[in-house]
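Sequence in, structure out.
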Amino acid sequence: MSPNEDMPDDDAPIDSRSEISARGARRRRIRRRRAAVIAGAVTVALVGVAAVAVARLDANVSTAPIRPSSSSAPAGEEQADAADDGDLNVLLLGSDSRDLSDETFGVGDGTKRSDAMVLAHFAADRSRIDAIQLPRDTLVDLPVCDDLGDGARSAGRGMLNSALNNGPACSVAAVEALTGVRIDHFMELDFEGFERMVDALGGVDVCLPEPLSDGHAQLDLPAGPQVVDGAQALALARTRHALADGSDISRLGHQQMVMSAIVQEATRTDVLTNPVKLYSFLDAATSSTTVDPGLAGIPSLISLATRAAQVPLSQIVFLTMPWEPAPGDANRVVASADAEVVFRAVADDVPIILAGDDTVAAPDRSAPIAVLNGSGVAGLAASVGDEAAALGYTVAVRGNADAAVDVTRLVADAGVESQATAANLAIELGVPLSVEVGETHGVQLLLGADYEALSRETAVEPLPSRPVEATSRGADVDLCAA
């Protein structure tokens, strides 16, 4: 055999196995190209479907101004974004409007009030959410409301829930005036939207200690644990006549249960991971919702939901605004001194400490305080004393100093309680003062001519609030627990 005997010449036939191998490679390349084309087409189709879905959800949402364009939030603070790292305050408004798609709830007349109001505070460190229910029967000094499409309103004394009749911006202004808290966003939901949201979850679990029946609210539920649909959940949250005293305050406990049930159901099920359920829930949530322009897009609403989902259930607390009967009107309420403590905690983004809660240590404010005015500014001791009292300090004396003084001084006896109280007082009043040890009982704050400038000089990290009495429920609490 010659050396080239096994080497085919250029004109020799190709080996059949090589031909099969080449054809197979070509087929595989064609299949891969087809698979890539199909995958690309499917991806484009899915993206297109998602885009259509998002566009439809976006179209569901109605918007309204949060405040006149010429005005700003309290203290000149800018409106926060749901995805920002700062704290966030969202006003949730349940509208009692009867101008709906059917007349199940009655015939609409163009008016509306807030059937439920919740000030939801999202902590900056994303560790907690405090959801404060504001009783609809709260009497407040309502501020002037510009006409933003629902008519103008003049200032005057009235019920907090009536502000919504002039639009959500009017409710925002009223709540800001009541609480001193900046509102970053609002969400207004009507009866039909609430029902659809609960139904999209497949109903929610509740637990009643006794049967409830209310023909006005179309409510008839037995005692014990049970699953309620949207209509039943709404009736349970709204009923007055099934309760002993038929008051707005009494029904707030049921609202806490229903809100806890919704949170538990949404986090327990696969709503966020199941596209069909997620779309159904978002469609229900957006179809009857009005929000401010900052929440108008689905991405913003998802950012807010994501932020809420990051908070453990044990750190989501629903609490009723501390209240007391309104002077001269036993059927109305006003915010109590404890409510001022709650509102300040929200404004300062510090934990609200509920009476009996030992998970957060309250600062020592136990020593008695004497506030003496040597500044020459009339009424300064009274105003500073009131501010200290609202923070939980015991102000034993408000009066004038023996003589005018230029420099403010903070003096305390040598006791541990007095020294701690004085140091905390300086922090909470926002004044950079060193505590002097002196011959006094408890703490003495001597206000000098420099006090007003001193109190504006520096910003001090707020301390936790004093404990307050409030009806509350944690979102993680067993629904059958009292």
